[in-house]
């Protein structure tokens, strides 16, 4: 929930698309942590703990990034959960950044595969392997046809 919603006593703050972006940022963090922010689910509707969480969020507290999470992904969800709505990206920017993260990730995987293939090829070339000769092999032979 957009922290600005909690700032007014009568909840007169109007939720906007930027409010949804805040929620999306929290959701992105949840995807990497596999838990609810501030262990909210374990609070068992304890009113004082919930008020404390709201107060912490209003004072700028956010969950810490999960170790090993893609840096660009962390940067994205931190932008999404900025306190001021005008500092949050719009949905087009979020989609663009997610696509960039995906492209970077795919390029890394391809580069990693290519490096692995190079190492494997070099390793095979350096090994002295005695493969049987296939000069007499004929794949059209009757012994291969059932």
Summarize the structure.
55% of the residues lie in helices and 0% in strands.
**How does CATH name the architecture?**
Orthogonal Bundle
Assign the CATH topology.
Answer: Transferase(Phosphotransferase), domain 1
**Range of helix content:** 40-55%
CATH class: Mainly Alpha
Task: Tell me the distance between the termini.
Answer: 67 Å
- Count of discrete alpha- or pi-helical segments spanning 4 or more residues: 5
Structural description of this entry:
This protein is mainly alpha-helical and 146 residues long. It has a single domain, classed as Transferase(Phosphotransferase) domain 1 (Transferase(Phosphotransferase), domain 1), CATH 1.10.510. 55% of the residues lie in helices and 0% in strands. It has five helices and no strands. The protein is elongated and about 90 Å long. The N and C termini lie far apart (67 Å).
Task: Chart the SSEs and their pairings.
Blueprint: H1 3-7, H2 17-33, H3 47-58, H4 71-80, H5 91-126
Helix pairs in contact: 2-4, 4-5
Characteristic terms for this protein:
146 residues, mainly alpha, Transferase(Phosphotransferase), domain 1
């Amino acid at each position: 929930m957009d922290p600005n919603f909690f700032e007014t006593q009568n909840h007169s703050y109007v939720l906007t698309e930027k409010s949804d972006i805040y929620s999306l940022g929290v959701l992105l963090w949840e995807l990497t942590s596999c838990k609810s922010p501030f262990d909210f689910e374990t609070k068992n509707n304890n009113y004082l703990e919930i008020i404390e969480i709201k107060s912490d969020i209003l004072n700028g507290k956010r969950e810490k990034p999960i170790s090993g999470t893609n840096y660009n992904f962390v940067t994205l969800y931190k932008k999404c959960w900025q306190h001021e709505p005008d500092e949050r990206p719009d949905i087009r920017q979020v989609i663009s950044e997610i696509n960039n993260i995906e492209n970077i990730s795919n390029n890394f995987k391809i580069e990693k595969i290519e490096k692995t293939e190079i190492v494997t090829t070099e390793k095979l070339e350096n090994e002295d392997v005695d493969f049987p000769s296939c000069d007499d092999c004929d794949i059209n032979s009757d012994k291969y046809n059932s």
